[in-house]
Predict the structure.
Amino acid sequence: MRDFSQAPFLVIWELTQACDLACRHCRASARPERDPAELSTAEALGVLRQIREFGEPLLVFTGGDPLKRADLFELVRASVAMGLRTTVTPSATPLLTPEAISELQASGISRMAVSLDGWDTQSHDSFRQVDGSYALTMRALAHAASIGLETQINTTVTRHNREHLLKIADLAASSGAKLWSVFFLVVTGRALAGDDLTAEEYEQVFELLYQVSLAAPFDIKTTEAQHYRRFVAQKKKAGQSVATHGPTMIQRQAGINDGKGFVFISHTGEIFPSGFLEISAGNIRRISLTEAYRSSPLFQVLRQPDELGGKCGVCEYRNLCGGSRSRAYATSGDFLAEDPRCVYVPKEATTLAAGR
Ligand code: SF4
């Protein structure tokens, strides 16, 4: 497993919280107007130089909708010129024109990620709470395919779409997406507790993802469901096959968790372990990104699986998985507590219970 004490694998940067959609689960509780306190273009260029000090982590420009910032293309060009592999996650609104996508490609992005939470117009648009979003998503994917731009589909699993995930997987396959990134709910922002699944249902979705992964033409990764890695490791241990199309995201993600291989920069420059774990290690206007990531007590403790509480702290998968620190915090107020959406009972917990 890689050492993430000095540099993250992935930097997610929320350029703005402005967005013309109103998605039901939105982490950022996005709204149409930009925040006057957002980082300026000059500040943003400085942040890029700081990110480059880590080496060459993957950089994702997200939002809100990054296209709400007029300087997005300038920032992408600067990022690419510095040698950072750069992905953009625009929202499917009228701003996402074929021309904008072509310009993103010309600016040098490696991949465009779009969200797809429904399996047809009605289901997707009701989730996004804006009519026409499904059609714009499909247009964006088709245009990207026509110009040879790599794409990724992001899907948030909720009670509303869990029965239809195979249909979304089919859409991902037919669109030519390279990665299906499946987000599991953390009840923060606009997300509602009633939309989340039970721990047993997480396991059922893991089985579905695993089955899809065996034949899909795309890779699969999970966000805030670190225990999918435990699920796949258990399959491997039991002698069952795992996806064979090259080094998979599940291998590359091994050990990554909030603050461990992963850092999130907010639209106002707060340095968070994750966009779903809004505890700041400082503001980039006052503290360097490398210092916050490498030396802040917050990030340091998040990289110590032995500090975890509950069953995650004694679990034999804690280095590979470690549970969602964001979900632990959202549900208990303690970011080191166990992930409440995991069914697994660690061997040590069983031994302790038997010895009682
Ligand atoms: S108990 Fe915690 S560390 Fe173990 S698999 Fe579940 S979430 Fe991961």
About this structure: The two ends are 34 Å apart (CA to CA). The pocket of iron/sulfur cluster is lined by residues 227, 230, 311-312, 315, 317-318, 321-323, 338-339, 342, 344, 346 (CB under 6 Å).
